[in-house]
Amino acid sequence: MVDVKVPSVGESISEVTIASWLKKDGDIVKLDEAICSIESDKATLEISAPKAGKLKVLVKEGETVAIGFKIAEVDETASAGASAPAVASATKAAEPAPSQVSADKNFPSPAAAKILAEKGIESAGVQGSGKDGRITKADAMSASSAPAPIASDLKSLAQQTIASSFSREIRREKMSGLRKTIASRLVTAKNTTAMLTTFNEVDMSAVMDIRKKHKDAFKEKHGVGLGFMSFFTKACTTALKQFPAVNGMIDGTDLVYHNYADVGVAVSTPRGLVVPVIRNAESMGLAQIELKIIELATRARDGKLSIDEMQNGTFTITNGGTFGSMLSTPIINIPQSAILGMHNIVDRPVAVNGQVVIRPIMYLALSYDHRIIDGRESVSFLKAVKEMLEDPSRLLLDL
What is Dmax (Cα atoms) for the chain? Predict the structure, then answer.
């Protein structure tokens, strides 16, 4: 018997929850075949079979166990062929004997079945007079359909139909470890920071024109589409150099500033919100940023991110606009001090050179910790991001 134990998934993680068993107790598994998924407070991972053989499950789904705990065993002496005779015999035993079918009560003869079908009568409601209760042609001829419901029953029938269209069912699920951690961190952020949000709007015309003009050539050269996130990430990393407090954090009684920008990008997954981090985003070009975002987002949705890839960011960007959000106040991803919220792009009337024109406008929101970031810095940071997006040449000139 080979033990299957919970592997280490990160320095700060001491226990995990058995999210689901991908193989059942007694199944024959192959070497390195995924047998279960485990869930920590930061990620969901799969455990593979260390050997080929018969699986013995020792821990139920939903249970929380410590790192290194034995959750299953694999019997190497078992083989896939060993279970074949049992399956075959079980299948054979499940097949009904021919005599059982013919001996069923209320089983109509072919002629009786035709007559009953023409009358619209179910055979289950007809009493057979033949052998073993078999329905004969005479039984079918004399059978009559059920009388139509009387008028007094119509009201009751209608009430039952209306009542059946409403549901009052309740579904209860155990909160996952990832969801519990998200909830805890959000509450901590609200309770331990002096969080404020400042807003601005950005005319996306220039960025959209660049994308429209160069998207085909960009994709042909770099193998990735030119999206909005790379422009926003680049604009933010440039603005973070000008306003280092937005890229800082509080550590006890110290203020910590970073001369690099590790930008977290919030990604929605079926298991909850995760924030993979783009390391040294300030040194990347638009193509490098786009490629990294796609890589991290894909692995996040597949549950393949490591713990290290979601830790130690210095600033976060979240895009609620992908879901149609017009405006929001995003919550800081502690211990960071600021988060930028993007929203949907809507054609709006704006004044340009004294004339009312229609432009694609996005509302931006910057939530920040007022303990380290002053109002002047937060407003100026957001204004700098707005100016770089409305005039992308500033990104090239680092203005």
Answer: 98
On whether the pTM is more than 0.90, the answer is: no
- Note whether residue 383 is domain-resident: yes
Same domain, 273 and 314: yes
Q: How far apart are the first and last CA of the chain?
A: 65
Total domains present in the chain = 3
Comparing CA positions, the residue from 351, 340, 345, 324 lying closest to residue 261 is 340
In angstroms, rounded to a whole number, what is the distance separating the alpha carbons of residues 231 and 289? 9
Whether 216 is a known active-site residue: answer no
Tell me the per-residue pLDDT of 321-345, one tens digit each, with 9 for 90 and over: 888 889 999 999 989 999 999 999 9
148 inside domain: no
Q: Is 374 a catalytic residue?
A: yes
Whether residue 253 sits in one domain with residue 389: yes
Judge if the upstream peptide bond of residue 335 is cis by omega within 30 degrees of 0. yes
Q: Whole-angstrom Cα distance, residue 14 to residue 31? A: 27
Q: At what angle do helices 286-301 and 205-222 cross, to 10 degrees?
A: 80
Q: Which of 3, 370, 391, 398 is catalytic?
A: 370
